[in-house]
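Journal club side-thread
Mid-discussion, someone asked how the predicted structure for our own chain would compare to the paper's figures. Pasting it here so we can look after the session.
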Amino acid sequence: MALMLETTDGATGILINHDLALKKIYRNVKIRTQTFRSCFMKSDLFDIHEPYKMDSQIFAEQNAKDKEKTQRKKKRKRKIELNIGELEAREYHSKIVQRISEVHMKLILKAKEMKYIEEKNECKAKNLLETERESGTGIASPEYQQLTEVDNNQSARQAARTRETDTILRDVCLTETQSTKHQSPVTMLEHVQLSKCVNTVISNDWNNPGLCHIDAETYIIPHKSTFLLSDFTHHKMLYPNSGDELYDLIVLDPPWQNKSVKRKKMYGSLQDEDLLDIHMDKLAAPGCLVVVWVTNRMKHLKFVKETLFPNWAVTHLAEWHWLKITKYGEMVYDISSNHKKPYEIILIGRYSGTQSASDGKQETEEHTKQ
């Protein structure tokens, strides 16, 4: 399900149901020869009807003895001054917040008119009634009411932590090194040993998504797709072998440096300049769209616009904002929050093909030396 809205001032909003989109993509997964099965994400991961709260927030609210204590905590003032990056982020936010809020409001109103989104109070009353009937007593327990009111996103938080103890990819990649020169992709099999998969281009040539067992783990690989299980140092193995195989669309979601990620050691990150090692002229067909996800840190946003796109010979076309909402259309975070925003930034550009990435990088390095 998708709904598109264009306002009178030219702004455009698109509402996408992620749950239904995934169900459509993976509704016919090949699990064995001539055997297919539909695969779905757990529905409760998308059944978020309250704005998102971290574990610490939930703990504080559940242990607050009275309303006054909670309100005092909210009024706590920040003791340190904002740094330059935070001031730039605040200025950027002030320029876009009104437009995002207006488009969001109009899009949700339209979605409710078309019955894509239910009214919150009506749906909560219906769910409470169903729970009362199922309980046999005709009364929903206070614990259930508190859970649905306060901590509906517990399943999503737990799912985000399920992979924390996994092997770090860069450690796996170091177990077997291969040449980074282009090689023909290996056809995906139903069972693959990790040692044979790492640093090797694997291709799913089936017309359907397929299950692939890599050691003890099971993955669903989209149809007609290719993947490389590796770290960034081997990215050149994905370069096409001929001009006929160049891409018309390239989407990048780099592991940007982030204070929270660095503190929690959740995953490895890249220096911004590492992305200059990507030779866009070896990947992109003429007119290729290049899409880059960027965090709300202004350093990364400016780097993509002012350095990365020019070095890739990519012309900046548009700036989108992915706004995350609950099933009732509310933003998952308060848009005025200084801690976390409910949106992420997407930069879109078009490859002109007039300059090679390697030449652009060399010019930048020479300019830096001067």
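Post-session note: The two ends are 54 Å apart (CA to CA).
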